[in-house]
Fold this sequence. Notes:
Blueprint: H1 6-55, H2 62-89
Helix pairs in contact: 1-2
Amino acid sequence: MEIPKYLTILTQGEKALSDVLAKRRNNKTKKSCELEIAKIEEDIATKETSLLEAYSSRDLDFEHLVSLKDGIDIMNRKRDQYLELKDQLF
């Protein structure tokens, strides 16, 4: 039986460890992305509630309404970009 070189054993051990760590990092990064998506969706819901409250006010402030709608549109676009990246990367 031929004994492999010590460096070969170390390299294979590091490779195996690196593979395990890479899988863990991948899962951690994916969960981090999902958390960001959840935060964005929470922000969207909050902004939509604010928009509904603004619509129901006695005196409509159109500048404020437009600003709220723009904010919701931006957050929706940001969420869509996160979802697209998540699908492409994971």
